[in-house]
Amino acid sequence: MSTVIDNAPYTAFHRRLALACSGGPLLDGYILSIVGVAVTGMQPELGLSTAAVSLIGASALIGMFVGGAVFGVLTDKIGREVMYTADLLVMVACSVASFWADQVWLIVALRFVLGMAVAADYPIATSLLAEWLPIKERGRLLGKQIVAWYAGSVLAYVVGYLFLQFGGNGSWRWMLASSAVLCLFFLVIRRGSPESPLWLAQHGRGEEAVAVVRKHLGREVTVAELTSGGTDEATGGEQMGAGSLRVLFSPAYRRRTLFCGLFFLCQVAPLFAMLTFGPAILGSFGLPGGTVMDTLGTGLISLVFLVGCYPALRAIDTRGRRPTIILSFALMIVPLVFLGVWPTAPAALALIALCAYAFLCGGPNVLDWTYPNELFPTQVRATAVGFATSVSRVGAAVGTYLLPLSLSGLGIGPTMLMAAALTAVGLLVCVLWAEETKGVGLQTSSQTPAPSEPELIHA
């Protein structure tokens, strides 16, 4: 098993690569959050119904479902580097086109394609980053990708606030188009990023793999070291095919596939709905709606989501992945139940409870992309990340579509209790299936444990 990459010193190369890879999550947070502010101006100007607003909010998430499923497989087949900038170019085009969109179907279509491009970036960037990182930095830097998501979300609310204050009528168009600026920034940052040496070695390009390790890490490695871990009991000991969904659902990997998809789904369904329609939720608790106050309140919640990631980043490398995610899910239920049983709580208390929920989400947040990258081998790593992203976005899209309908039809109390119930399902999934991968080499953690090695699962 190769230790060259696992034990390599952490250098400026890793820092730049981590920054470049953070572009997808940051853009996702920005693109999905800015629409929540934009609809406040879009709805009266275009005369949108509640159903139309819900569809606009959910369209990018539906696109992410398609994009994650398709581009994860493609990334494992043709490489991480090939698609590393193409997805950003698509985001630029759709963001700019959104400025001139004046019909619901066109806005929905553009945000659907945006979602596909964002979802494509997750398996590309996170698998590339995971395959370059040393063990000691892997959990922290993969976890920090979600910090970039919340940074993008916070930035979206700041930008939205400024446009609401100074932009006047039609400022929602500038909000939707503003993501093009971030896309162009990351296009520049990503220039010169190398292909994954593990992917190169597994695809018969061993000399290139050795060369990029020598160039960027200054160390020597053999092709045999880089290709170790290319077989598994999942395929009967045979070399597994790149980008194979069959491997994800083979007996050896089926549980891991379900775990990564389900805990991700149970986490992001209420989270995305909350961030997309945060002003409407706060309005249900009495905060003045249609003003900058509900936008700033949602921005504060998004900021707390970001802050909560930092203690979780420390916990996954000290306490471990498994105890961190289980405790986080258990505690996340409490503020949701509080809001569910006291739907008439004062706006200030409701805001505090929502901030508590946001802070406690840190555990699963930082493991969203850490777990699928650590639990699956190079040949299907991007496929696994893409699949988990797709499954999570099904829940997020449904939650985002149903939330405004639930608020108007059932009220805030039942809506919060349903969110608590879904979070409880996530807790059960983690108790049953969460594994411990702290301090384990990437090629080791991605091999399925033998029946005599239960400590990997429950350590």
TrEMBL record:
It holds the Pfam family Sugar_tr. GO terms for cellular component: plasma membrane. InterPro entries: MFS_dom, MFS_sugar_transport-like, MFS_trans_sf. Residues 17-438 form the Major facilitator superfamily (MFS) profile domain. The keyword Membrane applies. It is found in: Cell membrane. PROSITE patterns: MFS (PS50850). This is MFS transporter. It comes from Streptacidiphilus fuscans.
